[in-house]
């Protein structure tokens, strides 16, 4: 069966009969009582009748120029999430209309309009929701243009606010109006989790002549994109009696059970572990050839084909000085192209609505109740990770839609650095289509799981985001064997969180390596950035545990990266940074035996009996034991604070894997004896746990300042030499003390990842030498200006500069790229160490089109985000090539 996705057949043959009922839906403002005739085609629906803007007409002698507006009032704010509410979508904003002698209206601006007409295309929902399509005719003000404050809303269309636009544009009350309703009943799940929803790829069919001869005075017939043998026609409109409105809603039966770009491939993988179901749903060369047979108004191969399917004449490389395409550019994908994309995705395309939009009028979804909920939970990870485009560090988004109650119009909400669209990924095919579309259209591509990046890498203005959070499969492999490893392993999908992995490992009696924040995705930027852990001193970095990746590369192909398949890509993905070489769909990691843990928590502080000198002597004795503690495989997480002049060292906790309480006491007793000699009081709370997850769950939590616009962090890795060389140790400790005495927080980790598994990968050379990671931050004023943010950034570099001077890159120092300051000096060597040169070469090999970009990622120095003066680099602007 051939699927056609060319047009909708839509008829609205209205009579000039005056009606006594309102011409706009109940409750809609502005209400209109006089009818605008809106006609698509004739009384017989023929092919392509809605490909063009409808014919407008009215009775009476009316002069002047007019603006035509058409809006869908019932678009889901978030597809699949009914609680997210409804927003408006602008289908047309066309000025320049004037009346002809026969009562019709014409305009010469239909194609050059601020928002050219796009066809009705409601998505499938369960239960089905009728959409109200409203048409309005406004008197056109002299020298009309779209106000600057409304440009983005008009360009984006979704989230349009009719009343807000009318006020901003200075429009008077519309003189004529009309509306009809359409409902899509095709919420049918198909293989691979794809839902064939007609979100915008409607087609024509000659079967619409079934409604010819209808007795309705005003008729709307809707025919969707399914072949005539498998659809039903519905009509809506008025009867010949003007006092009664009759609605017969559309019913749709699916014709294409699986969108034509999808192929289900065998489960076998060269990694040695079978593909997940979601990974078996792919786009292949054969399926690309198949969609060429689809009857459509867009070139599918040019838009969605693999790199090897595109002729050299159709390739669009970005030259120096050029930018990625941006909303409003002449070559930004057309509505029809976005609709075609969503059709191939199976309805997974989500236009971005900022998470705090319910706090404002701009997107037409203001709700005090929802706004209060966003404000209350903005500091929690769960809120942001469940949203397609939200990120946990809004300072790098540009702070264009913060959760403040802006309903009175004194504040505005815009997309800023948020991507324009997100793909809610359920299978590999959707990732491949997204990568191909972004590459072929020269569009910025963003990858997001939870948005937990300290540098805002999961955002990007004008971009298309691949949202992998829904890929949550975990598979335990009791015995895995390849050339480098034999033992238990776990395969985890891209959306799986750290806590999920720990729980699954505990269930199977093993231990997995991950971070201390439970809501971080394991297989994405965490592992690809190296990934330190509370078990790092014993088992190394998280990246060292990876045995294979499944990944979609920049050419759109799905490949395995392992020691035997694409080994250079395998090398780069293990520590070379996220959002750089491809979209990882799963990682296969080694796991370790069940690991008991002893932990201890306590605090020492200045007091009436503990002077500052004594306190620092106690802290110095702690630092002097770092190498002994980490050589024993332990990990110490600590804070040094200066609160109102009171200094504190908080051990939260001392984490000793494979230690009994007796063994732990023997390990720490030399330090504890020093504290007693100094007469520093402390009371250790020491606990033994039978397994790693129980110890983790009792001691760690998500205590990061998520959602903050006032905190800017930075960090430093200190090598072993700084703790064994007396001169370097003195410089290191002096730098730490000066920062704390100046009022800056120090968050510390005593850990030595080394390389116990003897891995050759891209983990920074600084981590291989490290014995400690230190993090600090600066606090910005509320609602800081760009100048204040810049001052804060310079202050942070001054604070971390003391550490940098004590541990320069040339002596083994560096910074952890996942928790760093975005304006880190010489970030290439600081974040990536000795590996940067090879990583840059592999970036050119695996992504010569620069499909993947993230701030401070390998190769990002060739680009800039033109965000104006924001104080620090943000993602709120065009992405342009500079070298």
Automatic annotation (TrEMBL):
Transmembrane segments: none annotated. InterPro entries: BBE, FAD-bd_PCMH, FAD-bd_PCMH-like_sf, FAD-bd_PCMH_sub2, FAD-linked_Oxidoreductases_BP, Oxid_FAD_bind_N, PEBP-like_sf, PEBP_euk. This is FAD-binding PCMH-type domain-containing protein. It comes from Pseudovirgaria hyperparasitica. Residues 415-594 form the FAD-binding PCMH-type domain. Keywords: Oxidoreductase, Signal. PROSITE patterns: FAD_PCMH. Residues 1-22 form the signal peptide. Belongs to the oxygen-dependent FAD-linked oxidoreductase family. GO terms for molecular function: FAD binding; oxidoreductase activity.
């Amino acid at each position: 069966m051939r699927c056609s996705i060319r047009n909708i057949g839509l008829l609205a043959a209205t009579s000039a009969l005056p009606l006594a009922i309102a011409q706009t839906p109940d409750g809609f403002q502005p209400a209109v009582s006089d009818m605008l005739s809106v006609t698509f085609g004739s009384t017989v629906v023929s092919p392509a009748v809605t490909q063009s803007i409808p014919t407008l007409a009215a009775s009476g002698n009316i002069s002047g120029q007019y603006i035509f507006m058409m809006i869908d009032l019932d678009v889901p704010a978030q597809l699949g999430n009914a609680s997210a509410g409804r927003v408006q979508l602008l289908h047309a904003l066309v000025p320049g209309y004037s009346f002809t002698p026969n009562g019709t209206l014409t305009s010469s601006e239909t194609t050059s309009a601020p928002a050219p007409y796009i066809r009705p295309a409601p998505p499938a929902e369960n239960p089905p929701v009728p959409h109200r399509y409203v048409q309005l005719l406004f008197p056109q003000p002299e020298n009309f243009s779209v106000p600057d404050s409304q440009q983005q809303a008009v360009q984006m269309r979704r989230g349009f606010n009719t009343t807000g636009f009318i006020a901003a544009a200075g429009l008077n009350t519309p003189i004529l109006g009309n509306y009809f309703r359409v409902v899509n009943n095709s919420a049918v799940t198909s293989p691979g989790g794809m839902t064939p929803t007609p979100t915008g790829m409607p087609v024509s069919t000659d079967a619409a002549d079934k409604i010819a001869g209808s007795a309705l005075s005003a008729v709307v017939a809707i025919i969707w994109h399914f072949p005539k043998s498998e659809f039903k026609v519905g009509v809506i409109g008025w009867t010949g009696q003007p006092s009664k409105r009759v609605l017969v809603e559309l019913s749709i039966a699916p014709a294409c059970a699986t969108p034509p770009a999808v192929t289900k491939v065998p489960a076998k993988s060269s990694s040695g572990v079978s593909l997940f179901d979601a990974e078996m749903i792919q786009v292949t060369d054969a399926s690309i050839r198949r969609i060429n047979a689809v009857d459509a108004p867009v070139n599918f191969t040019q838009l969605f084909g693999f790199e090897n399917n595109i002729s050299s004449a159709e390739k669009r490389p970005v030259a120096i000085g050029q930018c990625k395409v941006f909303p409003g550019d002449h070559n930004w994908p057309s509505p029809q192209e976005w609709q075609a994309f969503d059709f191939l995705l199976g309805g997974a395309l989500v236009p971005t609505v900022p998470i705090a939009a319910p706090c404002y009028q701009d997107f037409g979804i203001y709700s005090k109740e929802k706004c209060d909920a966003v404000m209350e939970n903005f500091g929690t990870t769960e809120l942001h990770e469940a949203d397609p485009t939200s990120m946990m560090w809004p300072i790098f988004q540009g702070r264009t839609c913060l959760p403040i109650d802006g309903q009175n119009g004194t504040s505005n909400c815009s997309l800023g650095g948020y991507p324009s669209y997100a793909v809610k990924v359920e299978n590999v095919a959707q990732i491949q289509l997204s990568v191909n579309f972004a590459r072929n259209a020269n569009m910025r591509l963003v990858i997001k799981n939870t948005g937990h990046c300290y540098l805002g890498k999961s955002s990007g203005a004008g971009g298309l985001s691949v949202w992998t959070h829904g890929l949550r499969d975990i598979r335990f492999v009791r015995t895995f064997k390849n050339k480098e490893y034999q033992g238990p392993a776990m395969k985890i999908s891209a959306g799986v969180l750290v806590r999920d992995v720990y729980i699954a490992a505990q269930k199977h009696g093993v231990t997995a390596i991950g971070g201390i924040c439970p809501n971080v995705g394991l297989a994405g930027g965490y592992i690809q950035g190296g990934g330190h852990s509370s078990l790092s001193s014993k088992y190394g970095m998280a990246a060292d545990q990876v045995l294979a990746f499944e990944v979609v590369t920049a050419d759109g192909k799905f490949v395995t990266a392992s020691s035997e398949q694409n080994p250079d890509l395998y090398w780069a993905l293990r520590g070379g940074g996220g959002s750089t070489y491809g979209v990882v769909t799963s990682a296969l990691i080694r796991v370790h035996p069940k690991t008991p843990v002893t932990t201890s928590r306590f605090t020492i502080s200045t007091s009436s009996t503990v002077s500052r000198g004594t306190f620092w002597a106690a802290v110095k004795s702690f630092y002097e034991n770092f190498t002994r503690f980490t050589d024993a495989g332990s990990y110490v997480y600590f804070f040094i604070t200066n609160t109102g002049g009171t200094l504190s060292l908080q051990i939260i906790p001392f984490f000793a894997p494979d230690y009994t309480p007796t063994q732990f006491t023997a390990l720490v007793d030399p330090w504890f004896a020093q504290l007693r000699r100094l007469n520093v009081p402390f009371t250790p709370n020491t606990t033994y746990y039978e397994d790693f997850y129980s110890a983790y769950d009792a001691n760690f939590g998500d205590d990061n300042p998520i959602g903050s616009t006032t905190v800017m962090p930075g960090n430093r890795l200190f090598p072993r030499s700084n703790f064994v060389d007396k001169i370097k140790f003195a410089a290191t400790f002096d730098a730490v003390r000066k920062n704390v005495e100046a009022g800056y927080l120090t968050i510390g980790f005593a850990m030595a990842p080394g390389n116990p598994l003897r891995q050759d990968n891209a983990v920074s050379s600084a981590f291989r030498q490290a014995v400690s990671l230190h993090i600090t931050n600066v606090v910005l004023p509320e609602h800081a200006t760009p100048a204040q943010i810049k001052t804060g950034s310079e202050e942070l570099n001054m604070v971390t500069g003391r550490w940098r001077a004590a541990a320069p890159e040339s002596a083994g120092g560096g910074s952890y790229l996942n928790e760093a300051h975005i304006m880190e000096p010489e970030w290439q060597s600081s974040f990536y160490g000795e590996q940067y040169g090879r990583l840059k070469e592999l970036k050119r090999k695996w992504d010569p089109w620069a499909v993947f970009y993230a701030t401070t990622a390998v190769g990002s120095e060739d680009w800039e985000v033109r965000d104006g003066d924001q104080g620090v680099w943000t993602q709120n602007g065009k992405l342009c090539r500079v070298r």
